[in-house]
Model the fold of this input.
Amino acid sequence: MRISVQGASFDVGAETANFTAGHSDMGAIVTFTGVVRDNDAGTLDRMEIEHYPGMTEKALTEIAQEAQTRWSLGDVLVIHRHGTLKPGEMIMMVATASRHRKNAFEAAEYLMDYLKSRAPFWKKEFTKDGAEWVDAKDEDETALTRW
Amino acid sequence: MRISVQGASFDVGAETANFTAGHSDMGAIVTFTGVVRDNDAGTLDRMEIEHYPGMTEKALTEIAQEAQTRWSLGDVLVIHRHGTLKPGEMIMMVATASRHRKNAFEAAEYLMDYLKSRAPFWKKEFTKDGAEWVDAKDEDETALTRW
Amino acid sequence: MKVLYFAWVRERIGLPRETVETEATTVADLVEELRAREERYALAFSDLSALRVAVDQELCEFDAPLAGAHEVAFFPPMTGG
Amino acid sequence: MKVLYFAWVRERIGLPRETVETEATTVADLVEELRAREERYALAFSDLSALRVAVDQELCEFDAPLAGAHEVAFFPPMTGG
Done:
């Protein structure tokens, strides 16, 4: 299991290749990568991600451990950036390795649902018209009820 | 959309990086990679994957197009190998790009469920004791009923 | 008519493809003709529930018509992924 | 007690962290003390349903006890991923 909270960008290709190569006893590898998407008006200049150093690592570790136990994962990877990101930049990725695809998919979705609403990150979007904190979505909170 | 049926190995890192970089208007990228897993006894020498040239490409294209339409995907990638593979080698991968994570995950699971049971591939496992065709699993057929 | 066999169907019949002269109007009729040929065909087609069929590279049922078809393929349930 | 503020809570209060001398026994008591301090605190804590709290880096409810706690953090609902 590896958890990384970092300001620097990451190489999704290298991370995926490393993670996959390390698990030849696992038949199924799922990755999710989150990318900063421009707003609908196409005016997003940048996004700033604030986090709670210390608690972030702790929360992500707990979420990853829960997923590993619950779905008997061979391995879990969570990378999440903070700081300033431009549209098109990768914010985060998770990867899960399991013997079978169902567990790998479910665990990855669980990780995403939990880190959306339970890991202490906050996004602020900057356009030429000003800055605004991104509101938490009701549907993200609702998503947790299925687990 | 890219569909590739190939005997050669593929670079999951490079494929994932290319796919992700091409879609800065999409917030969510999901990949699934299938790896040849050794059998429980640890005696798998190799796997041979037979396919139906022509129909394979056609079936994968239809499955990918259906996924793209149904989940409004920004892009889809399907790579599937045939021929001889050793334990630890990657058999196939799919990738989906969507604005939101729910669609990217669902579409990737749909692709996997359909290509398991509807794309004309057949696996044969070779151990020192002989060779055996892999049986289709009832649960793979059942998985299709959810879509 | 081009007839193709894959996986253990190919192994039981002993060849991957052949050209068959037939007046069969459905897949089921074609299966009957093949079964009547030789033991290895009868064996391969002994349990149709264990087989799948594609006509011109599209999966179909065993009662599918063969009118205008160029290629029929028989194989076990697929195991991709 | 170390008290931390994140995102718009930090912006409204105007600082990321401070040390608070308090006898509060629950988070809710601490919130009452902070609210009473100044308008900017009252504003930041005006709607607790829009806030989340962590005691010693664990999410908890506003009625959580503060006995033995070193660090309390207030912030809006999280938006990771």
